[in-house]
Inverse folding.
């Protein structure tokens, strides 16, 4: 076979190879152009396609907390999350199930014989009586009399379900969207996207329980793989930062001159390393710490609160733990007043962090454990919500009351406590953007599983972000080869609860 015949016989193959290489090159160029056009929204044929394009905040590392625009007009400018570690029993608080009273002491078929901590006992009626509250007639247990008086302002989610029955992983999942550690919290995502209006205080503050951190610790308010600037700042009213108080021998003028000198030195140092985002971020965090020397002591000083206000929160009544938590509630209100974007308030801590009952976990003697936690949480929390409303702060603030999962409708084999229930639990919202005196979804007749409008934690968090003007599908961060987001690849906004 001569060369011409070879080319003629195999020409198609040779041409296909050339075409492949040429077309591949053109395709790669086209893909690059498509990506550039898509980033500017120029490839969208309609609003729906444009709506789904990822949007990354443009953040100057030297001013990471500068306010930024949301994706769309928000209902809420700020958010307060009141988180109760340990799994509050929905069946003994807000989710009324008459069938439990009817079947008390029985063991109907279809319910499991073994759950998270072992063998189960019989169906148990609520440990506290339920009564209708407010104009809506919402049934609430006597365990929470103060919050019960406010149900006409609340939007309940009664069909929540989660991915795990373990406390640390449950806390992680509720607050970060993943059961594993190392992922950004809701507060970190929100401040990463929006910054904050007050440049003298942190964008995100975590007010931990006076007894210590919850089981998942700082992961509940951590920044994960987001820049460290967006992690929650941890402090509470029990331990005011005495080291921030300027010594009497050191004048305000001395203090200011020192700050001015540091700013000049930092500026020159940054000029030597242009474009070093990490260095700029460190300098910004140090500058915020310097501003906090004056802003934090003043916001934490509650001595100027009126006696009536202190009394309404319960600062002057009940146990020492209740009084300390009440002070934390006042601190939360003061931070919201000052424009802090996200405040996370904890009622409960890790059981290993102290002696006795430290959270809502109630595998035994639920009468004692829940009663103690409710006595600490109920009055101060209700006063906080009422105070925010009275001051007009709920018009722009979303308040969330939450826990990681619920508890079972039957007792454990010990006969005095309820086991973990990831398949049905209750949380509520109030304030900016949500309906009031409204209940969404239902658990089944036993409160065992979400039955009507089942709502995942992904859905709950997607709704939170929507109320803050953020599309949970668009707010992403590229990490380890993936576009990460708070809701992973799940979640839908629960539009029925929106006002």
């Amino acid at each position: 076979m001569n060369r011409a015949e070879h080319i003629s016989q195999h020409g198609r193959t040779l041409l296909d190879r050339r075409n492949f290489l040429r077309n591949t090159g053109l395709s790669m160029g086209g893909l690059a152009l498509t990506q550039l056009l898509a980033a500017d929204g120029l490839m969208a044929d309609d609003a729906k396609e444009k709506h789904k394009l990822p949007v990354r905040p443009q953040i100057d590392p030297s001013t990471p907390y500068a306010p930024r625009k949301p994706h769309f007009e928000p209902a809420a400018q700020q958010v307060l999350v009141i988180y109760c570690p340990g799994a509050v029993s929905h069946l003994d608080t807000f989710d009324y199930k008459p069938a439990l009273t009817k079947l008390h002491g029985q063991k109907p078929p279809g319910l499991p014989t073994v759950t998270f901590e072992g063998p189960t006992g019989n169906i148990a009626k609520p440990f506290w009586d339920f009564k209708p509250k407010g104009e809506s007639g919402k049934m609430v247990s006597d365990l929470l009399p103060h919050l019960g008086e406010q149900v006409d302002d609340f939007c309940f989610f009664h069909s929540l379900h989660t991915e795990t029955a373990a406390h640390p992983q449950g806390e992680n999942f509720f607050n970060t969207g993943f059961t594993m550690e190392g992922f950004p919290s809701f507060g970190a995502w929100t401040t990463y996207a929006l910054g904050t209006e007050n440049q003298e205080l942190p964008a995100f503050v975590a007010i931990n329980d006076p007894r210590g951190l919850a089981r998942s610790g700082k992961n509940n308010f951590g920044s994960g793989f987001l820049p460290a600037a967006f992690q929650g700042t941890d402090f509470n009213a029990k331990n005011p930062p005495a080291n921030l108080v300027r010594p009497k021998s050191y004048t305000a003028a001395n203090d200011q001159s020192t700050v001015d000198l540091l700013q000049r030195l930092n500026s020159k140092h940054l000029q030597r390393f242009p474009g070093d985002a990490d260095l700029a971020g460190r300098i910004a965090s140090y500058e915020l710490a310097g501003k906090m020397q004056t802003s934090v002591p003043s916001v934490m000083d509650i001595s100027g609160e009126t006696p009536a206000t202190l009394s309404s929160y319960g600062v002057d009544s009940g146990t020492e733990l209740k009084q300390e938590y009440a002070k934390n509630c006042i601190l939360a209100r003061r931070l919201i007043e000052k424009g802090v974007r996200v405040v996370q308030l904890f009622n409960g801590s890790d059981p290993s962090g102290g002696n006795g009952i430290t959270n809502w976990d109630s595998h035994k003697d639920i009468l004692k454990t829940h009663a103690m936690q409710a006595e600490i949480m109920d009055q101060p929390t209700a006063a906080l919500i009422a105070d925010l409303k009275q001051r007009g702060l709920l018009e722009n603030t979303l308040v969330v009351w939450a826990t990681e999962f619920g508890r079972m409708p039957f007792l454990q084999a010990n006969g005095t406590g309820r086991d973990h229930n990831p398949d049905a639990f209750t949380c509520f919202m109030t304030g900016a953007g949500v309906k009031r005196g409204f209940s969404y979804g239902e658990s089944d007749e036993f409160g065992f599983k979400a039955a009507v409008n089942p709502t995942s934690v992904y859905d709950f968090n997607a709704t939170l972000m929507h109320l803050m003007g953020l599309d949970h599908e668009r707010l992403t961060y590229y990490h380890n080869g993936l576009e990460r987001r708070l809701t992973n690849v799940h979640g839908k906004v629960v539009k029925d609860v929106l006002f």
